[in-house]
Amino acid sequence: MTQSLLSDAALLSRYQQGFYRVTTVLKAYSERTLALLGRRNFSLLWIEKESLPWWPLWIERLLLRGVPYVLDYDDADFHYYDEHRWEWVRQIFGRRLDGLMAEAALVIAGNDYLARRARDAGARWVEVVPTVIDLLRYPFTARYYDPHNGLPRIVWIGSPCTAHYLDALREPLGRLASQIPFVLRVIGSGTFEMAGVQVEVVSWNEDTEAQCIHECDVGVMPLLDGPFEKGKCGYKLIQYMGCGLPVVASKVGANMEIVQEGVTGFLVRTPDEWHESLAKLLDDRALRSQMGAAGRLQVEKHFCLQQTGPQLVNLLCNAAQA
What we know:
By secondary structure, the chain is an alpha/beta fold. It has helices spanning 8-17, 22-37, 57-64, 79-82, 87-93, 96-103, 112-120, 170-177, 209-214, 227-230, 235-242, 255-258, 271-282, 285-302, 305-320; strands at residues 45-48, 69-73, 106-109, 126-128, 153-157, 183-187, 198-202, 218-221, 247-250, 265-268.
């Protein structure tokens, strides 16, 4: 049995309107509470991050009592609490997720930063399992080139909540566009514009995201260098590399574990480094192909469901016996 706290329709409404309807939230929490009350029908609960966000910790602990549970983190969600701008939130909820991790049968972390937080919280069993893709959804085929205009595409995929990271590319991409023609494909951002750059906005869809990435030539993942960003697990990079694209990414957090410098792409810090790395790739189709193939091979070895799936099943089975 699986249960999402919020439906896809609720998330879409939130992205469009900027907030959740009160009735939607009340319904979601009511259904989640009822599900937790029936927890003894199961031998294990597998929870993404937390089951009742923003509720008092003692209530969630009470509703999880008696059944082993596994917490799964691919983002530093604890920083929503301990880095919150309001002091009262930091005081009341700052260690909320630490309290959950301390009592979990197992904490699965997507990178070392998240795993270190779990260990510091007192979690008795922590395993690092990287974010992965399903190779069946990301077939590796010959690169796509648009016969209509032949312009190379730089691609970014994300959500309206993360599109602000693209602000770091406004200056270097604007400069690059005056030298080399290209298209910036932005997937999932909602309305987006960048002065001086030809932007192609594409709506996100699970069924088409792999194809939309595959039609491009270089994948980018800009990030700030902050606490929350250190917890990100580089899923964008793995998607790009799975499609055979070279990547350029901010030298932050898990990006440094995923990108092999000069082999699968480039790690950068400054606007000049962004400009130089992207210019090098746009100007050299053979280099793009070479790095893209190396990236795909790395995904096949380390970042795919086919490799980590059996490991995860074994971890969950052992946690159920804890």
